[in-house]
Design brief:
homodimer; 336 residues; alpha/beta; 434 Repressor (Amino-terminal Domain); DNA-binding
Chain lengths: 336, 336
DNA sequence: CTGAAAGCGCTTACAG
DNA sequence: CTGAAAGCGCTTACAG
């Protein structure tokens, strides 16, 4: 049997297609009785609405998300929060993983734009070129919001944690604990988070009369191995810090495993995953609120879709430091 | 300026809309010269194809994925593999997280069907009702493939690891290592993986003259806390096993943390994440190949889309045991 | 409160 | 190799 169309419903109810369409939109211009009759027929005849065919409607109710990947719990949580918030707003989500490849990111965006998404949420790949991104988005003028990472010089709505502040919290904490030589294993070289956090860390250390030794600032991959490799690099070079600041909790776990043989060295990082508190020893970490970031991104996008003329806005979430054993002197540890 | 339409390109090139449409499809029925001319105009005029408007085309080139969540690395890897494979096949991905709520899963599927996806990949939520799922899918006859989890009595293409075999591998290994009292902290009660693995574990233990004591088979949540809570439950009940089989590596990490005070108890689990080998002690785990699962799922779906009349197929991946210190007697440990 | 008509931006036979 | 015409399944003014 052929699929049931809107015109079949209209015929069955003895009304026009326009009326059925208005029922679909729950318009106030159709009487209650007619609505009931039409809905009953839709249900009975197994009608499935074809959203694609609403060519004249201004919206598709699809939003696209292009993000790096979900191997990292921060990005996994962020993706889920975005999906949940968009669902609640009535959108269906198109998703693509750039895997931090700017060219793939461009291809994914172009594909989504061909599907006429109402808006785009973008976690920019490392090395995203401002001009290229502008070109990709300009042809369609699709509303968009940047999430979790900036693109230098690119003017757009943005949501993310305040990375400078996050690193300041860590730097001040380590200085107050008395650590002197702090290493920064802060993630990939192209990452805006790395640059922002390095700046914040340096600032906080200098405010406490310390320096961030350039020899102790090392680019790392974002995973467990990145932390371990950077530690091995430091130790091999005879550069032994007394505290290490990592890119993320996962990186910190790798670093801590590699540091096990090197005596007691403090470790702090960013994300504050549940695993940070449960680690042995418990890991000092700065909460970066991916769930809240995702929710705010969805709200900013909705506002942007509703009014494309809005001035662009940046939402910075305030990070929160959770000091734990991994950076506390023995006398400051809680004795649980 | 108004968006450029296909008819604008046609006018600019002095050809019909049909010809431009054929160029878009790279049809062999258009001369090389015309193609060049049309493509140049598209590029110059900033044309953006509107896929929605291809109402008469049989395909949308959109595929939907409804999965549980990506908090667990297995599902994160699976989602990424699916996205990558579908992209390579030319599809754009609609994604929804059911969060293991069958009602939400139904809503997500209905939404995707309204968008006329060419096919659906489904990681069924716990407690998915066969009849309800059939009803949701039947109205549209959308091709679909089940991934990683079965639905009892639901006939469809399926890809996943062979859970029975996976648990047999673990059971045989533990028995051969001499463990006598094996506990099974095998995940949520509604999970098909749990049921299949419990069956495989029992079978292997019995083949080695041991039993799986029902008092030692405990439902757990799929996360870290699930492992810790189940261990505490066992210890509080005075049921001390000499080996514990966990639902996943993450669950195992929680269990190991909770077991730390209880002396040496062997732990094994499923997934074989990179973190398993790096854990202290290294964790015995069965690899379950999420990346391969995702790839195979995309291929099965493509075959199903190409020929809906195909008989349904089940692809079972053979798991692989990686024995490590967490289950090896001291004398069997490698001395690295 | 409802309908007839035009339209959304493409694709698909069909004809030449 | 190309075009004129009809069509995909909806929505939107407009008119009454």
């Amino acid at each position: 049997m052929a699929r049931v169309r809107l015109k079949d419903i209209a015929a069955a109810c003895g009304v026009s297609r326009a009326t059925v369409s208005l029922v679909l939109q729950d318009s106030g211009r159709v009487s209650h009785g007619t609505k009931e009759r039409v809905r009953e027929a839709m249900h009975r005849m197994g009608y499935v609405y074809d959203r694609r065919a609403a060519l004249r409607a201004s919206r598709t109710m699809i939003v696209g998300l292009v993000t790096t990947h979900v191997r990292n719990p921060y990005f996994a949580e962020l993706s889920m929060a975005i999906e949940g918030a968009l669902y609640d707003q009535g959108y269906t989500l198109l998703l693509g993983y750039s895997r931090d490849d700017a060219a793939q990111q461009a291809r994914l965006l172009e594909g989504m734009i061909e599907h006429r998404v109402d808006g785009l949420l973008i976690v920019p790949a490392y090395q995203t070129d401002r001009a290229a991104l502008e070109r990709t988005l300009a042809a369609s003028a699709t509303p968009h919001v940047l999430v979790a990472r900036h693109v230098e010089g690119f003017d757009a709505d943005y949501v993310g944690v305040d990375n400078v502040r996050a690193a300041e919290l860590v730097g001040a904490h380590l200085a107050e604990q008395g650590y002197q030589r702090v290493a920064f294993l802060g993630g990939p070289a192209g990452s805006t988070a790395r640059a922002e956090r390095e700046y914040g860390l340096r600032k906080a250390l200098e405010a406490h009369g310390r320096e961030l030794d350039p020899a102790l600032s090392i680019a790392t991959s974002a995973d467990r191995d990145g932390g371990a490799a950077a530690v091995q690099h430091l130790l091999a070079a005879g550069q032994v810090p007394d505290a290490v600041v990592c890119y993320s909790d996962v990186t910190a776990f790798g670093a801590m495993a590699a540091l096990r043989s090197a005596g007691t060295i403090a470790v702090a990082s960013f994300d504050d995953l549940p695993a940070a508190a449960q680690h042995q020893p418990p890991l000092t970490s700065v909460a970066t609120f991916p769930a809240q970031t995702g929710l705010d991104a969805a709200l900013l996008l909705q506002a942007r879709i509703d009014d494309p003329a809005l001035p662009s806005r940046s939402v910075l979430l305030t990070p929160r430091l959770h000091a734990r054993e991994s950076t506390l002197g023995p006398n400051e540890r809680s004795t649980t």
